[in-house]
Each structure stands twice: as C-alpha cells, then as structure tokens.
What we know:
By secondary structure, the chain is mainly alpha-helical.
Amino acid sequence: MSSDLDVFVGNTTLIDEEVYRLWLDGHSVAEAVARRLRGGVLEREGTSVAVLQSDTRDHYRTFQMLERLLHAPPRLLQQLLFQIPPERQALLVQRYWGHWGHWGDTGDRGDSGGHWGY
C-alpha cells in the first residue's frame, strides 16, 4: 500500500473563508466538517475525510490564536507571527467585527471566553 503526501512550505498564513465563517458562526469542528462535506468539498478538492478534518482543526487553531489580535486590529497589523496580506487582514477584521461588533468593545459573546466548539 502506498500513500502520497503533498507538502507545502511557506510563511503565508492560509485562511479558508468558508471555515472562517463557520468558526464565526460558532460551529464546532465536527459541525464544520459535516457542513463542508454536505457542501461537496471532497469532490471539489479531491481529498479525504481525514484530511478535511485535519484541515478544519488547523484552521480553528489558527482562528483561536488570531482572535486576541482581532479584538485589537492595530495589533494584528503590527504582529509578525502570522504572515497575512493586509487586504486579507482587513477582510478578517471586517467579518469578525461585523459578526460580533454588536456586543461592544469587550468582545463578550456570552460564552465562557475563547471560541467555543473546539
């Protein structure tokens, strides 16, 4: 039995907008994977369920790490850990605050802190 392994090495943080929306909507990793499956991602991307689960988990971890920076957009622009093009940073901030902005500056979403579902 042979397996193919594709490896990508780079320093740009990749953001899947569909997964970001699912994360913002509060879906767990399992729910996000199920929604992506129903959306036909396996057929479009030619991947496996295991890779899809891993990809979704990785995105959720990235979003959790980014969340503290999304609370203070100027810090996101100044940080060096995540190499995200400025236009993508603006999109992330706009969608984050468009989604949660109605709770005010605290970012309090009524949960116990951090992002739920992970």
